[in-house]
Design a protein that fits this description.
The chain is mostly helical and 104 residues long. The chain is built from two helices and no strands.
């Protein structure tokens, strides 16, 4: 699952955002006609477009996972409120070592 290792996931998503920002910077500073096949910036344009597509896909997947987790956590809170049972929310996720000081 994408979020099994949150540290790796964080680093990967940050890397995709950085690559996307570099791509946007390039695209804002190049003439479109220079990006046509056989022109001087075509290969670089292709590389940046690929980075943007990959970032969009990975960030979209992350958003879907987050949405699913938020719904699951909300359901667990509602269930805990009804039953009075404690700690049911994190058991399935295995991330019992939450430390807000470790977040970057």
């Amino acid at each position: 699952m994408m979020f099994d290792d949150l540290t790796t996931t964080q680093a990967e998503l940050i890397g995709h955002v950085r690559a996307a920002c570099q791509a946007i910077k390039f695209l804002r500073n190049v003439e479109p006609l220079e990006c046509l096949p056989s022109k001087e910036h075509y290969e670089e344009w292709s590389r940046h477009m690929n980075a943007l597509n990959t970032a969009r896909t990975r960030l979209g997947m992350a958003a879907e996972y987050l949405h699913s987790d938020l719904n699951s956590f909300n359901d667990a809170v509602i269930s805990a409120k009804k039953s009075g049972e404690e700690r049911g929310i994190i058991i399935d996720y295995g991330d019992d070592a939450y430390d807000p000081d470790q977040l970057e």
